[in-house]
Amino acid sequence: MRRGSIQAWRHGEALLEHGCLLSGEPSSVPRHVHDEFQISVELTGPVQYQIEGRSQRVEAGELFVISPGVAHEMFDPGPRSPVGESRVAYIPVELVRALTAGAGCALRDASVITQAEIVSRFSTYHQASQHGLLRRELDALLASFLTIVRPLLDASPSLLPIRRRFTCE
Questions:
Q1: In the chain, fewer beta carbons within 10 Å around the N or the C end?
Q2: What is the SS3 assignment for the chain?
């Protein structure tokens, strides 16, 4: 992947991106909303989000979930060495429901996920989707990830606190 580029592709209804930003000056993404869940992992972090008047720093290796309809903006403080890199998925609510019919583990409310197994499941799905696996294989990888975080995704956006850890029980 070239520095200073964003690759985008689809897995069914999900949109995925892999971004590499040039090192240098700080950058930002203006306030906006999505109809889908935005799930991202910062590979080189940190970045700073503003969500409903609250500030949230997301470090390298942390997963960040933003619910549909929640206005947010992002600020990358830069400079990066050599690049800023992230992996993002926009997952429609209907796809989450279709792939997670069963119960997952109980989670406390969270928006930043630091548990290595969960971050790894998301990263595995994201990277596999970039390499053209069969739809059913990608569905299985995404379902494995979503089943664990489903209670978080079901939470009301107004109730999502910033920066809480959780444990699977």
A1: C
A2: CCCCEEEEEEECCEEEEEEEEECCCCEEEEEECCCCEEEEEECCCCEEEEECCEEEEECCCCEEEECCCCCEEEEECCCCCCEEEEEEEEECHHHHHHHCCCCCCCCCCCCEECCHHHHHHHHHHHHHHHCCCCHHHHHHHHHHHHHHHHHHHHCCHHHCCCCCCCCCC
- pTM, two decimals, is 0.82
The pLDDT tens digits for 114-161 are 888 889 999 999 999 998 789 999 999 999 998 888 766 655 444 444
